[in-house]
């Protein structure tokens, strides 16, 4: 433990010195060079990335390419294309009260930052915030998850081959490593994980008044009203529940389906299953497995509890204990007190609840913690508008699920229980940026001097009244 403490302190001091004396005032070309090196490394090690993630939880190579490598490379490309604009100062108008002044918002990097990343997308969710931090001009100390050791080892190798320790360093290990890192007074902290751990991270950050970005999760609902294109909706939902075995923070947890189309939706889901998985589910080729025994056992217990209390399986329900695998599963008649309806599932299991009144669904959702994502499948603009205006969520999507995450020009993040702050593109860049106000005043006479003491002059009182009324 003493060796870890010394290593953390040494790297933190090294990055702090490098940032203050070199990086803070370095031109944008320095940041761009780092991102280009990172992109080159990723493209040269594509197969290694796929192999590492497959070794951790049998994620299909195709899925890794579209959900880990592609978004990471795209994030670098997007930053390189837009960094000049993001980093440029924004000029601010002042009005007559600030006559003769000029004002602007200077974009300056925050400094030494900590990124604690999760296991579910172990490559992409480690590097996307790091990319935003590098683009903003920060140094990075990165702690990937111990639950995906092969990917974490590869991230460490990447860091050593692409960056200097003062630029980006990867720390491997369990929660005790995170605890040691959180003792330092970072300039910003980016955490992706559960709300429970997010509270611990935020409490540690509060000791140093460190700003935070918390990307958490939640019970993401999807409404399918009586006008929904059921074939289309079934394919999209089933695809998202199969992707990464639904170990995805924006995955649908509960479908609220209008009672008039419930049976038709179930039929559409069965047809979608045959279309998307015509040869069945081959682990490592069509679907990943759950990340470890602990997570598999938790999900299995949630399903068992619901079945014991009268729930019905409408689709799937297959489990392979030896390989930690669960088929895409739809369950109905799940009692409200069951964990499946109160805890983020993080597995290819979804609850189906029939409804008759959309207003009641919205009212019920308002009583729950704010989810990271909420979805509606509907042809009715009226129902879409009512749903989007009535609920709260970090992100929303109409007639699809999950894909809003990858839109680079949209902010991604939660609200309340599902997170604090935003990621991706310009929004991620600004999380690692201090937007510093800068005002320049002329010498000699200024409009502000009109209200200097003494205050007993009638013309000054008139000026103040004019300011209050008109400026």
Q: What is the strand and helix layout of this fold?
A:
Layout: H1 2-23, H2 28-44, H3 46-57, H4 61-87, E1 90-92, E2 102-109, E3 112-116, H5 124-136, E4 139-143, H6 149-162, E5 168-170, H7 175-181, E6 188-192, H8 195-206, E7 211-215, E8 221-224, H9 230-242, E9 254-258, H10 262-276, H11 293-308, E10 312-315, E11 319-320, E12 325-326, E13 329-332, E14 349-355, H12 358-366, E15 373-377, H13 381-390, E16 395-398, E17 419-420, H14 425-431, E18 433-440, H15 458-470
Helix pairs in contact: 2-4, 2-5, 3-4, 3-6, 4-5, 4-14, 5-14, 9-10, 12-13
Question: What does it look like?
Answer:
By secondary structure, the chain is of the alpha/beta class. The relative contact order is 0.13. It has helices spanning 2-23, 28-44, 46-57, 61-87, 124-136, 149-162, 175-181, 195-206, 230-242, 262-276, 293-308, 358-366, 381-390, 425-431, 458-470; strands spanning 90-92, 102-109, 112-116, 139-143, 168-170, 188-192, 211-215, 221-224, 254-258, 312-315, 319-320, 325-326, 329-332, 349-355, 373-377, 395-398, 419-420, 433-440. It starts with a helix and ends with a helix. It is globular. The protein folds into three domains: 2-216 and 421-434, 3-Layer(aba) Sandwich (Aldehyde Dehydrogenase, Chain A, domain 1), CATH 3.40.605; 221-408, Aldehyde Dehydrogenase, Chain A, domain 2; 441-470, no CATH class. It contains 15 helices and 18 strands. Helix 6 links the parallel strand 4 and strand 5 (168-170). The strands form four sheets. The chain has a seven-stranded mixed sheet, sandwiched between helices.
């Amino acid at each position: 433990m003493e060796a870890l403490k010394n290593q953390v302190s040494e790297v933190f001091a090294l990055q702090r010195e490098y940032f203050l004396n070199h990086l803070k005032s370095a031109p944008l070309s320095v940041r761009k060079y780092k991102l280009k090196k990172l992109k080159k490394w990723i493209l040269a090690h594509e197969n290694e990335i796929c192999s590492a993630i497959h070794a951790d939880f049998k994620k299909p190579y195709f899925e890794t390419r579209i959900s880990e490598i592609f978004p990471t490379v795209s994030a670098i490309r997007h930053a390189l294309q837009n960094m000049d604009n993001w980093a440029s100062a924004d000029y601010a108008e002042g009005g007559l009260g600030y006559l003769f002044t000029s004002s602007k918002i200077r974009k300056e990097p925050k400094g030494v930052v900590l990124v604690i990343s999760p296991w579910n997308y172990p490559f992409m969710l480690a590097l996307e915030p790091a990319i935003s931090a590098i683009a903003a001009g920060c140094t990075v100390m990165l702690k990937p998850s111990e639950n995906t050791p092969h990917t974490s080892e590869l991230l460490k190798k990447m860091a050593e081959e692409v960056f200097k320790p003062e630029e980006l360093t990867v720390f491997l290990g369990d929660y005790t490593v995170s605890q040691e890192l959180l003792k330092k007074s970072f300039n910003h902290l980016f955490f992706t994980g559960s709300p429970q751990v997010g509270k611990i991270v935020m409490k540690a950050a509060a000791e140093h008044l460190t700003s935070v970005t918390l990307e958490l999760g939640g019970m993401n609902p999807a409404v399918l009203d009586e006008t929904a294109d059921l074939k289309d909706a079934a394919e999209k939902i089933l695809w998202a529940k199969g992707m990464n075995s639904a170990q995805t923070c924006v995955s649908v947890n509960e479908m609220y389906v209008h009672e008039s189309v419930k049976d038709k939706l179930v039929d559409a889901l069965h047809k979608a299953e045959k279309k998307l998985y015509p040869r069945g589910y081959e682990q490592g080729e069509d679907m990943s497995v759950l990340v470890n025994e602990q997570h598999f056992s938790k999900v299995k217990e949630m399903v068992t509890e619901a079945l014991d209390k009268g729930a019905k399986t409408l689709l799937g329900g297959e489990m392979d204990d030896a390989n930690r695998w669960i088929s895409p599963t739809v369950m109905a008649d799940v009692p409200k007190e069951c964990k499946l309806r109160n805890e983020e599932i993080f597995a290819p299991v979804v609850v189906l609840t029939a409804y008759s009144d959309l207003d009641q669904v919205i009212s019920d959702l308002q009583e729950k913690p704010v989810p990271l994502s909420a979805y509606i499948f509907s042809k009715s603009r009226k129902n879409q508008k009512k749903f989007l205006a009535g609920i709260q969520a970090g992100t929303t999507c109409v007639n699809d699920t999950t894909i809003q995450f990858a839109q680079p020009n949209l902010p991604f993040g939660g609200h309340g229980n599902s997170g604090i702050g935003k990621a991706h593109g310009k929004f991620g860049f600004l999380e690692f940026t201090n937007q510093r106000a800068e005002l320049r005043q002329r010498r000699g006479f200024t409009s502000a001097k009109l209200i200097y003491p003494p205050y007993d002059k009638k013309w000054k009182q008139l000026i103040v009244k004019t300011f209050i009324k008109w400026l």
